Each structure stands twice: as C-alpha cells, then as structure tokens.
Amino acid sequence: MSRTACRATLAAVALLLAAGGAGAEEAFITEQPANAVAVIDLAAGGAGAVVAQIPVPGAPAGIAVTRDGRRAYVTSPDDKMLSAIDTASRTVVARWPVGGGPLGIAVAPSGTPVFVADWYDHHLLVIDPDRPELRRQAETGRSPSGVAVTPDGALVLTADRDDDAVSVIDARSLKRLAVIAVGQRPFGITLDAEGRRAYTANVGSNDVSVIDVHKRAVVGTVKVGERPYGVALAQDLAFVTNQYAGSVSVFDVATLAPRGIIAVGEYPEGIAASGDGTKVYVANWFDNTLSVIDVKTLTVTGAVSVADGPRAFGAFIRRDP
Amino acid sequence: MKHLLTVAAVASVVLAPLAAEAHGPTRKKVTETVEVAAPADKVWAAIGNFQDMGWHPVIGATTGQGGNAVDATRHLTLKGGGTIDEVLYKFEPEKMSYSYRIAEVDVKVLPVTNYSSTITVTPVDTTHSKVEWRGAFYRGFPNNDPPPELSDEAAVAAVSGVYRAGLDALKAKFEK
To answer: Residue A254 and residue A256: Cα distance in Å, rounded?
Structure first.
C-alpha cells in the first residue's frame, strides 16, 4: 500500500508540475431551471466572474468538456437532447435528440465519442459528434448516472444507481467487461488522473466506494455526509459534495482517512478541481452559487453567483490546450 | 392543499420506498417566506420543535421518536387523512433552523419523491422576524410523461401550498 501510495503521490506531483504552465481556466456550469450554461472565468478577480450565459433549452444538467477545451457537451433531460457548445464562440453549434432520460455524460480524451447515460432506458448511448446519425449503445445496469472514461480512452465506467453497481465497459467494442458491486445508489463517478482508481458517491449509503479499476474491485469505503453527489480529486485528496448536509467531505486518497468537512452552500452538487489542483469548485444548486475551496487550507475562499439551479454534473472545467 | 385535505384513509402500504428511490428528470425547489411581527426567539419557540407540527393548520397529530436529535423521526397525521413520515437530518438551534426529509409519503397525499426541506427563522429587528421554508424534491411520477396530478407543476403547487398555509397561519397566530 505504501509503495502504491508513494507512486500515486509522485504521479500527482508530476501532474502538478506538468499543469503548472497551463493557461486560464473556465467553468461551464449548467443552470437547470434557468435553461442556460454559465461560463465563469476562474482567473478573474476574487472568486471568478460570469463572462457568458449560453441559452440551452430542456433543463440542462450533465456536462462534459473535451480535453482540448474546444467543446462542451450538455444533456437536457426535459427535452431529451444532447447539445454541443463551441466554447470559443460560446454558442450551441448542434443539438441531437437522444430520447429516454439523458443525464450523466462523458467524452473520450480524443474528443469523440460522447457517452450519454440514459437514466430511464438503462443503457449508455455512444455518439460520434462528427457522425451523429450513427448511434451505438452499451449495456449498463439500471439507471446509469455518472459516467467516466479512463485517460487512455480504453474504458468507460458508469455508476448504475439502481443496481448499486458500477459497469466497466470496453470503449471500443462497447462490451460490458465487468460489474462491480459498490455502496447503495452510486451517483457521481470520478477517475483519477492515471485511470487507476474510481470513486463513486453513494447517495443511499452516505459513503464513497473506492474502486481499483484494474482489479475490478472495491478496495475501500469512506463514510461521508448525507446524500453524497459527486467526487473531485485534487493533489492527494478527494472532495465529496454532500447534498443534504450542505458540505464537502475531504479524505486522503492514499490512507482513506478523513481530512475534514467544509461547509459550502445548500445542495452542493457538481464538483471539480482546477488543473493545478490548488482549487476545488462546487456548484450549490439551491443557493445558485459556485463555491471556491482552497485545497491547501481546506476553506471556502469565495463564491460566484450564477443563475437558478446550478448542477454541473460532470467534468465542467475547460482548460486551454 | 387539495391533496392534503381530500385524501381519505391511508391505503395499505405495499412496499416501503427506499430512501433514495427512482425519480423524475428535474429536481424542483420551492422557497416561501413570511414576515412575522414577533421576535425571532418567540417564533422559533413556536416552530422549532421537530416533534410538534401543531402550528400547521393541516396537521392533526405529530408522534415521533428521538426529540430534536439528528435521525429523529416524526409521523404526521393530516386532518384530512393521510400520513407523512419524516426524518430530521440537521438541527441548528443557534441558527434557528432545522432540516428534514420525507421518509415515506403516498404521492396521493403529497405528489413528491426524494423530498428534503429546511425551515429557518431569522431576526429582522427586535420585534420582527422572517421565516423561510425551503424544499427540494422531484415530482411524484418517477419516469417520463407523468399524469397531470403527478407532474412537476403539481409537485411545486402542492409543496408551495403546504408552506404557504403553514406560514400564513403562523403569521396570523402572532399577529391576531
């Protein structure tokens, strides 16, 4: 364990150094009842500033920004559409009907395909944005929620909420390779930068399952607050939004020991870390704010007001390539 | 409100729903407030006991266990019939605020699922206070294409109605 932990730490440090020179970052925040996606310049004075408001119909909820930062894909469960946003022009450049209950979403590291979890029809929809008429599907468990893709693009993981399980899917063949039992009602799922471990926020059992992706097994369970929603990783820490508790639980990813509980706004949901791992951003659905957490001090250093109902379920940070 | 007042005796419960059951696509939120011509501590004294919902005009009886400790439960019997089971998950007397979730309710009584709520008293000045009641919930129908009585609109209307009735009654009680 200690050697693994050491290697993980070294990798994290290497990642930090690599990300050190990265350019400005923006948060793309789905505002569900407001039918919009806010763009927040995270480098702006104070906690950041809303620099654009992109209309997206159908109660947008899930979001996935591509690794190159050029596109943001958004699910709208109310009108059952997938939208593609051009991040530079801040416009919706395409909308595709997907049916069912689109919510969780992830995009391959190369930028294609896009993986959309169908909460009602219980599968993963696979769409190539360049050839959207060609749809493929992968089998999942019931009510797949969060989706994550390994950094090498080889595997897709879905948190199958109503099966208390995670599906491991081959991204190319779309074969379901494994089903891993986790805690109750897994919702958000986050992979680490190496694709080595995955973390699920288990709404029903108020804990996080830590999955060894290679072993296809849960290697740890960490108690968090009431109704966890999503997980972000920064440096050697995991940050978990607790919807009912109005807080973020923090634990050490190597030892799984708790490191603190940070009060944020009401109904914190989407959560993501900055590229350099110094900040964690939290969308507070009831309060209509984005909280900024300083990773070093584990305190909230500011908040940005956004429109009604920010959810930002997914990878919502855009980085310059 | 109509839902609460017209529903007849409780039907037999086939299966207790899980704490986090399947739900509609879009969570809804409702915030209702009232300003009361009474100091905050007096208003908190009237509503700040999780085991007593007697201040709400549609609640006939409150029974429960665990007082005001986290995970305390209460069983509300409505005057018009129907029951609601609730669990306390946050109790902050220093902030004059508590939060609870519904563990079990028939959607015919209140057409919502995955419901949570917070009620808070804040002072306006030494003789006035504000009561805010917030709820977050999904509609009663857990899939696409709900019948009208289990739609998003029906859920929002029902919760708003419950909050409005309670807050207006509270104001009337202090200002009569």
So the answer is: 6
